[in-house]
């Protein structure tokens, strides 16, 4: 068994790729992994370390074929706010607007209900959704890439993450390791001050266009509550911006207004959203969908993106897409 280095010492990108290769290949003990992950989280990961760790995970994933214009919309999780599933709803809205979404996600590790938990509560068979992912993505424009199906090396890591019970670098690696190889993404992270560091990691890995976002209160998505730190990553470079809900003519609302719960609670709220229920949850979804449509190149203006997202909901297209997805994933 290999001994992991002290996480107090920074690793360069190549060293990080090697060390996380050991972790993913089971070449070190669970106790060593837990110690290393906690130490690294406490002193904060660097851009090099995140990029190197993501390269190790990418090298071990099981890929799928996807349309060239497919995007992903996800958050790193671990923000502690336990909100309703915004990125899951955004995925449906954006896909129903005509942009293929290869949604990469997992069960909850540090929240009450992850994307997989809520989709399952809505009636989507997770096993069948995985088996039919390429088909539903090609024919419906949406799929769910359940992390456990595409990252077998994560099998021994998930219990360690659950035992730690808080955010680790694995939250950051997942969005950078989409099995569909998407080149456009909207990624929410839980630390606004960390946006440029994470954007630096994404720039090291390369991307056509990715938007990294974080609400000022530490929300891992575009927040209605106040301002948002945003990095626009193109190729191997990025630029920083500040954005708030007024960008899409939406009212501000506190995070408590979209507080979620267990999977059944979140699924009920998502169903109500698709059925036309107004309020902060709808507004949060429209805000994030506008950013996603901008990243996808489907629109060139935030407000046009918000209007397109609202139409996707109001026309019933997003709700119909969910019904068709559940029916096809059998």
Automatic annotation (TrEMBL):
Give the binding site residues for anthranilate 1: 75, 106
InterPro entries attached to this UniProt entry:
Anthranilate_Pribosyl_Tfrase, Glycosyl_Trfase_fam3, Glycosyl_Trfase_fam3_N_dom, Glycosyl_Trfase_fam3_N_dom_sf, Nuc_phospho_transferase
Binding residues for Mg(2+) 1, per the UniProt record?
87, 221
Give the molecular function GO annotations.
Answer: anthranilate phosphoribosyltransferase activity; magnesium ion binding
State the reactions this protein catalyses.
Answer: N-(5-phospho-beta-D-ribosyl)anthranilate + diphosphate = 5-phospho-alpha-D-ribose 1-diphosphate + anthranilate
Q: Which domain of life is it from?
A: Bacteria
Pathway info: Amino-acid biosynthesis; L-tryptophan biosynthesis; L-tryptophan from chorismate: step 2/5
Q: EC annotation?
A: 2.4.2.18
Mind telling me what this protein is named?
Answer: Anthranilate phosphoribosyltransferase
Subunit text: Homodimer.
Q: Which GO terms describe its cellular component?
A: cytosol
> Organism source for this protein?
Parerythrobacter jejuensis
Residues recorded as binding 5-phospho-alpha-D-ribose 1-diphosphate, renumbered to this chain, are 75, 78-79, 83, 85-88, 103-111, 115
**Per its UniProt record, what Pfam families does this chain match?**
Glycos_trans_3N, Glycos_transf_3
Q: Ranges for the Glycosyl transferase family 3 N-terminal domain?
A: 8-60
Q: Which SUPFAM superfamilies match?
A: Nucleoside phosphorylase/phosphoribosyltransferase catalytic domain, Nucleoside phosphorylase/phosphoribosyltransferase N-terminal domain
Q: Which residues bind anthranilate 2?
A: 161
Q: What class of enzyme is it?
A: transferase
**UniProt entry tagged with the keyword Magnesium:** yes
Give the family, as the similarity comment puts it.
Belongs to the anthranilate phosphoribosyltransferase family. In the C-terminal section; belongs to the anthranilate phosphoribosyltransferase family.
Tell me where in this chain the Glycosyl transferase family domain is found.
69-318
Give the GO terms filed under biological process for this record.
Answer: L-tryptophan biosynthetic process
Q: How is the cofactor bound?
A: Binds 2 magnesium ions per monomer.
Print the keywords alphabetically.
Answer: Amino-acid biosynthesis, Aromatic amino acid biosynthesis, Glycosyltransferase, Magnesium, Metal-binding, Transferase, Tryptophan biosynthesis
